[in-house]
Design brief:
heterodimer; A: about 140 residues; mainly alpha; about 60% helix; about 0% strand; B: about 325 residues; two-stranded antiparallel ribbon; 12 helices; globular
Chain lengths: ~140, ~325
């Protein structure tokens, strides 16, 4: 394949950028909004704010045990609590790339560019595996 | 802006950054339990704001400054600091990514093969980091930060590396392009070499990123630029974009493990992103070489603190 003479931004790259921009915007907005609700007491945390200094310096295993914090996706059941609700925006941020990769697969498939279809699928599989909660360290 | 106001501004930033680190450090050692809870998130926001300002002109990502400095001088356990560090790096990469992709400074085609391996290995790094005792991770972090300082102080950069021919893998994957260098008013054609070696190095970088929550622009850029021969601006842009994938994987591991505390993560991300916006605006008036030296001194201090804390010498 020859190298073009002029800058050409590929169609899939522009599509990726559009989805990424929205993912980042939504994730940050949700994270900050939920955090404000948490700080103002509208959504109280499972651990009271004033008690947090007793917890945040603990090693992770001790913190999980003493605060009765579940691991894996169990935090999703605790969304009425401000500290868990604040993680929704963070989860959206960490998932944005999955949506971006899924959005560019049809462009590569139509070309057809099978190598990059496979690479996008692999990248999605890695992110889904990380997000699945299967891989956790038992303390 | 003339040289004098620029120097004054740089000195002011230096003072803010040093106070930002020294203040909490003193307070952490003196009365971490006695201070009201809100002091720490507020201090975190202020310090991250200052770090965000200096990170852009210093040419480093926020994560590499955040983890050693906050881990060394704030009362939060290193597990939570690493989780927040990944989110700081991720949020910065996500914020910068769309524009870098649109102007062609980040190249999706070049990034994808490297990012797939690095994000897989970052999961391994995150799991290992969370399984190891904190003092071991702290000491290893200190050594890594000191190595990064040495790398940043000594590494050469090549704005437009000469790559006469791509390697076979790069040719097969069509890892090449053209970008518009606005400063020079020229279209720059580029291609890459040593792709297999680049893939191996990115696998190792992913492990470090996941283990320490550092982000990894400090390693991505030299590998893309010096090893693979991508132009410096394409290397920096593509590195930032790769971080958005690598840090997403590792961030999920920390999130599922319960190692993300909103009270640590959200003020850090907000402070760093606001600071980075100011830093980007000050880019043209700050003396980048002075800011870079200042950041190296901060990193040196934080790296030594992490190492001594890990070894139990300065707890």
């Amino acid at each position: 394949m020859s190298v073009p003479d002029r800058p050409v931004v590929a169609k899939e790259q522009l599509r990726y950028a559009r989805v990424l921009e929205w993912g980042a915007r939504i994730g940050l907005t949700v994270a900050v909004a939920d955090f404000v609700l948490y700080l103002t007491g509208v959504l109280p945390g499972r651990v009271a704010l004033a008690e947090l200094p007793k917890f945040w310096s603990l090693p992770l295993a001790d913190y999980l045990q003493r605060s009765a914090t579940p691991i894996g996706w169990a935090w999703i059941k605790l969304l009425k609590n401000g500290d868990s609700a604040s993680l929704v925006g963070i989860a959206i941020l960490a998932s944005s790339s999955i949506a971006c990769l899924a959005a560019v697969i049809p462009v590569y498939a139509r070309r057809p560019d099978r190598t990059y279809v496979v690479l996008c699928v692999l990248a999605i599989c890695v992110l889904v595996l990380a997000a699945s909660g299967i891989l956790v360290v038992r303390h | 802006m003339s040289a004098r106001p620029s120097a004054l501004l740089t000195a002011t930033l230096l003072l803010v950054a040093l106070l930002g680190v020294a203040g909490p450090a003193f307070a952490a050692s003196a009365a971490s339990a006695a201070a009201p809870w809100w002091v720490w998130p507020l201090a975190l926001f202020v310090v991250c704001f200052a770090l965000g300002i200096v990170a852009v002109p210093a040419g480093v990502g926020g994560g590499v400054l955040f983890v050693p400095i906050v881990g060394g001088f704030f009362p939060f356990h290193l597990d939570f600091v690493r989780g927040a560090g990944l989110l700081v790096a991720l949020a910065s990469a996500l914020a910068a990514g769309p524009n870098l992709l649109r102007v062609g400074l980040a190249d999706l085609r070049l990034a994808l093969p490297l990012a797939v391996l690095a994000s897989a290995s970052s999961i391994v790094g995150a799991l290992v980091g969370l399984a190891l005792p904190a003092n071991v991770v702290q000491a290893a972090l200190g050594i890594t930060i000191l190595a990064i300082v040495a790398l940043m102080a000594s590494a050469k950069k090549s704005e437009f590396p000469d790559v006469p021919a791509p390697d076979r893998l790069a040719a097969a994957l069509a890892l090449h392009g053209v970008f518009r260098d606005v400063a020079r008013g020229e279209n720059i054609r580029w291609q890459v070499r040593r792709t297999p070696l680049g893939l191996v190095l990115f696998t190792g970088i992913g492990v470090l990123a996941g283990m320490f929550g550092l982000g990894a622009g400090w390693a991505n850029v030299p590998v893309l630029n010096l090893v693979m021969g991508a132009p410096l601006k394409v290397s920096a842009g593509t590195s930032s974009f790769i971080l958005s994938l690598v840090d997403s994987s590792a961030a999920w591991v920390y999130l599922n493990q319960g190692a993300v505390l909103a009270i640590v993560a959200v003020p850090s991300v907000a402070g760093m992103m606001l600071g980075a916006r100011i830093g980007a605006r000050l880019l043209s008036v700050l003396k980048a070489s002075v800011v870079r030296r200042m950041v190296l001194v901060l990193l040196l201090l934080a790296g030594m603190r992490a190492l001594l804390k890990g070894l139990g010498i300065w707890t």
